[in-house]
Amino acid sequence: MMKKNLSIGILIYPGCLGSEVFGFRDTLEIANALAAASAKTEIDISLFRARRQKVKLSGGETLDCPYVPRPAFDIILVPAFMFVNIHDFKSRLDRLDAETRLLANAPKDGTELVSICGGAFLLGKAGLLTDVRCTTAWFMASLLQKMVPAAKVKANALIVTDGNITTSGAFSAAFDVAIHLIKKFIGADAAQKTLNLGLLDGARTSQGPYADQALFTRKRSDFIAKVENWLVANMQKSYSLENLAHYAAVTPRTLQRRYKKERGMTPLEYLQSERIGKAKELLRMSDRSLQQISNDIGYEDISAFRRLFERYTQTTPGAFRKRFRRPADELRR
Question: Which residues in 288-307 are b (16+ Cβ under 10 Å) and which e?
Answer without folding.
Answer: eebeebbbbbbbeebeebbe
